[in-house]
Amino acid sequence: MTGGEVAGILVAVFWAILVSFLAVVLVRLAQTLRATTKLVADVTEQAVPLLADASAAVRSAQTQLDRVDAIASDVQEVTSNASALSTTVASTFGGPLVKIAAFGYGVRRALGRGREEQPREQTRRSVIVGRTVPAPRRRKQKG
User: Fold this and answer.
1) With left for phi above 0 and alpha for psi between -120 and 50, is residue 139 left, alpha or beta?
2) Contacts of 121 (CB under 8 A, 6+ apart)
3) For the chain, the helix, strand and coil percentages under 3-state DSSP, each to the nearest 5
4) In this predicted model, what pLDDT tens digit does every residue of 62-72 receive, in sequence order?
5) Distance CA 75, CA 87 (A)
6) Residue 128 pairs with which residues in a beta bridge?
7) How far is the CA of 107 from the CAs of 73, 94, 103, 118, 119, in angstroms?
């Protein structure tokens, strides 16, 4: 055997090893692609019902939001009506009630001046940790 023949045999052996290696890689790649195809098919089968359920949930939520919107607009109308009613009541009865209260205060003051009032003593109160302690009680004077 000559050097060229040995080189030819070596190249043929390496070429056979390379082709075998590539065949193994292609077989593994084919297996991976088959598994991926099966996985995508399974995910598609499971995703379609989930998407249908999600779509139904979104439609239901939209219906509920429409109802809440109607309720909110009704509440806004009731609030504006209550505000108008309180304004009407305040303007109708507010002035006369203030006048009656002022008149009653004036009558009390006028009737109170007829009696001789003794000046009130200043009372001191102490504050202890957020609580007010009442001042000592006054004794009634006999007279």
Assistant:
1) beta
2) 138
3) 80, 5, 15
4) 999 999 999 99
5) 18
6) 131
7) 50, 20, 6, 20, 21
Q: Give yes or no for a contact between 11 and 18, defined as CB atoms under 8 angstroms apart.
A: no
Longest CA span, the chain? 154
Report how far residue 79's alpha carbon sits from residue 69's, in angstroms, rounded to the nearest whole number. 15
The pLDDT, as a whole number, for residue 115 is 60
Position 56, amino acid: A
What is the per-residue pLDDT across 22-47, written as a single tens digit (0 to 9) for each? 999 999 999 999 999 999 999 999 99
Least confident interval from 44-48, 65-69, 86-90, 95-99: 95-99
CA-atom Rg of the chain in angstroms: 49
